[in-house]
Design a protein that fits this description.
About 30% of the residues lie in helices and about 30% in strands. By secondary structure, it is an alpha+beta fold. The protein is globular and about 50 Å long. The structure holds coenzyme A (COA).
């Protein structure tokens, strides 16, 4: 059967339950090849949806038929990663003349991987941040995310752990 065509748009508050479900499924299924079961479980406490991104109009969803196939976005705020529940949050606005924009919360539905959804959302987020005057961007990559970002021209800055979960801070000139 042919895969349904993809469409993308800015996320709205009504999308929040579907985004949360997509993130949980994506974390559980797609991190398996990269982390132990214990660290996949720990990822749920570290990752997730930051609803500030939706309120800011900097978060996108990709739809396939009547379901979500992916999501992700960028931010002009200081928080580097994590959902509403994450301990490290800083909603302070970044200065585009000095600070790197953030790329945030990229997730693809397990049934729709390797169709270019990650590349599509990342390209949109980079272009949107550049259009707001940011010359560079940073992100906190999961080990599952590193191959996508590397393929899209991102460079490793430093490894770190969050709640015991290994992550990689990465950067790119826009
Ligand atoms: C990371 C993630 C968003 C990638 O999504 P995706 O839609 O499958 O990515 P794309 O189809 O756009 O892939 C683009 C390129 O990235 C690289 N890539 C993506 N996933 C890869 C993988 N699992 N292994 C190796 N390379 C990979 C490839 O170069 C790929 O190009 P190709 O398919 O032509 O070879 C998805 O795997 C995911 O949701 N993972 C779990 C959640 C997560 O960890 N998100 C990252 C948060 S920082």
């Amino acid at each position: 059967m042919t895969a349904p065509a993809l469409a993308h748009r800015l996320a709205v508050a009504d999308d929040i339950p579907a985004i949360r479900a997509l993130m949980a499924l994506s974390i559980d299924r797609l991190q398996r090849g990269f982390l132990t079961p214990e660290l996949v479980a720990a990822s749920h406490a570290v990752m997730g949806l930051d609803t500030q991104l939706i309120a800011d109009g900097t978060y996108m969803v990709v739809e396939a038929g009547d379901g979500l196939a992916g999501c992700g976005g960028w931010s002009r705020r200081a928080t580097l990663f994590g959902g509403n529940h994450a301990a490290i949050r800083d909603d302070a606005l970044l200065d585009p003349t000095r600070d790197p924009a953030r790329i945030r919360a990229m997730y693809t539905h397990p049934d729709h991987t390797r169709r270019g959804i990650g590349r599509l959302v990342l390209g949109w987020a980079e272009a949107a941040a550049a259009a707001k005057g940011f010359a560079s961007a940073e992100l906190a990559a999961t080990l599952a995310g590193v191959p996508l970002y590397t393929a899209c021209g991102w460079a490793a800055i430093e490894p770190f752990t969050a709640g015991g979960v290994p992550m990689m801070r990465m950067g790119k000139r826009l």
